[in-house]
Amino acid sequence: EDADVLFFIGSEPLVLSFAPDVHPIPDHIRAIHLDLNTSYIGKSFPIEVALFGDPKTTLPILTAALEKKWGTPERQKADEQRARVEAETGAFWEKTDPAFKPGEESKAGMSRTAFQAAIREALPEGAAFVDESITAGGNGLRRAIGDKASDLFGMKGGGIGMGLPTTLGVKIAMPDRPVVCVSGDGSAMYTIQTLWTAARYGLGAVWVIANNKSYRILKERILNLDGKANEFRQFPCMDFDEYEFDFRAMAGAMGVASAPADTPSELIEAVRTGLASGKPLLIDAAIDLEPLER
Question: What is the pLDDT of residues 69-79, one digit of tens each?
Answer without folding.
Answer: 999 998 898 89
